[in-house]
Amino acid sequence: CSSFIDPSNRSTENWIGSNNPQAIAHQKQLANLNHWQAQGQLAIINRLTGERDGLYFNWDSEPNNTLITFSHPLQGVLATLTISPQRAIWWDEENGKISAPNADNLVAGLLRTEIPFSLLQKAFTGALPSGVEQVKTYDDGTLARATWRSPSQQLWALDWQAYQPVQFAQQSWQLPAQLVVASEKVKIKVRMTEWQP
Amino acid sequence: QDVGATLREKLAPMQTLQAQFQQTVTDQQDELVQRLNGTLMLKRPNLMRWETEAPDESLMVADGDAVWYFNPFVEQVSVYDQGDAVAQSPLLLLLKGEPQSWANYRVSQQGQSYTVEPKAANSQATLELVFSQSGQLKDIYLHEPEGQMTHLALSDVRMNQPIAASQFQFTPPEGVAVDDQRQAKARRE
Hints:
Number of helices of chain B: 3
Helix content of chain A: 10-25%
Order of helices and strands of chain A: EHEEEEEEHHEEEEE
Number of strands of chain A: 12
Number of helices of chain A: 3
Structural class of chain B: mainly beta
Shape of chain B: globular
Distance between the termini of chain B: 40 Å
Oligomer: heterodimer
Radius of gyration of chain A: 16 Å
Number of strands of chain B: 12
Strand order of the largest sheet of chain A: 1-8-9-10-11-12-2-3-4-5-6-7
Helix content of chain B: 10-25%
Structural class of chain A: mainly beta
Strand order of the largest sheet of chain B: 7-8-9-10-11-1-2-3-4-5-6-12
């Protein structure tokens, strides 16, 4: 697994696979999570320049449409990003509405920082993103670490550092509380403070 | 007497204010996008402390010269000239007693609610202050030009009680990145 990030202190030995029934059960449960909403914070750290940005988010995800609202405690709503299979639409006060086929390219052009929204979207709930490798789980079957290569061949390391129990539909779900996604250039910390599945 | 003077008169007895707040931010569709709880402290003439609780701790301190915004999750503190900061967050206007500070704003009243609107077209948020029947500040709204809104519902409001000067001072913790916007602004000029 990559050394881009400082791993959490929980032990991880299990590889995901047929001999890991808890992981399989957890993934099966998450497959039923189609519409969810989460609030929290993103910290985006440029590892080359040291520049950092913090954004509060409200992430509202449905199978074919995700609306992410970015805000600041003292300045209110700053921007929104809408992602559907065909299109991504960004809005902020300065630029107004901008759309592009792909969210990652759209945001990279705007913020001059590569943020893999497509990966974040999949990794957000702790579901196994397609195309990931070197997957490791914690003892309870939740995902711990994995790596992913973007279409532009950028290697990203994922580290699900903490989970939280969330009650929903008469079930208890283990959903991420803190996730770190990092490449050589960028480290993105995600803290989910509130889940509304 | 114009409504602005009435509002300043209403705020004049407030030498210090301390309160708990629940802050909510809603988007144009009135959807809740952010919810924070915290503590607000104000002290004339220009001191302010706004602090939110875990798990989303963040802190803003206006010390009279500069505004410090510290976000532990990002491990960064941003520093602004307090003069610029008033433009950024009209909350700081609450402390300004002199009429000239309010010259750039139009004040209107509806019952216990006072709206403070920037005269410059669609520049920044409109501030709305709502008082209780007994004249105590109980709600602060920031209405954004595009329809989003920040609402601070105040509770446990205490006026004119002493507040330690240290509450309005800030020193960046060890190892935290400092994003000094004052220098950035000075370089641009």
